[in-house]
Amino acid sequence: QVQLVESGGGLVQPGGSLRLSCVASRSSIIFYNIGWYRQAPGKQRELVASITRRGNTNSTDSVKGRFAISRDNAKNTVYLQMNSLMPEDTAVYYCNRNIGWGPGLGSWGQGTQVTVSS
């Protein structure tokens, strides 16, 4: 079964950018739809953006026009480019395989912390 590891988080000022990476091992990422999820303190985990095996993408309304999900199958990696970051984007970000706009189907990793603060 595919194992996914997130990286790229950090502390950034409002209006800044970050690029998160989700690297697959044990299996090729080409077989999976992948979603980026986030969980803020005291809130439920939510799906932020998703990309199908064919490269079709979707994102939640709150990040449309600011976040972009992409995949590089040759590098076994899915990215989340985050621009114009806002304090409400602060959360732990996770990637997971999914079907459609649905919950993660695999085990959850440790995620990567994104903190937007001045």
Description of the structure:
With 118 residues, the chain is mainly beta. The protein is 0% helix and 48% strand. It has strands spanning 3-7, 10-12, 18-25, 33-39, 46-51, 57-59, 67-72, 77-82, 91-98, 112-116. The mean pLDDT is 96.
Number of helices: 0
Taking pLDDT < 50 over at least 5 consecutive residues as the criterion, the unreliable ranges are none
Order of helices and strands: EEEEEEEEEE
* Strand segment count: 10
What is the compact description of this entry?
With 118 residues, this protein is mainly beta.
List keywords for this structure.
118 residues; mainly beta; four-stranded antiparallel beta sheet; 0% helix; six-stranded mixed beta sheet
Please render the helix and strand layout as text.
Elements: E1 3-7, E2 10-12, E3 18-25, E4 33-39, E5 46-51, E6 57-59, E7 67-72, E8 77-82, E9 91-98, E10 112-116
Parallel strand pairs: 2-10
Antiparallel strand pairs: 1-3, 3-8, 4-5, 4-9, 5-6, 7-8, 9-10
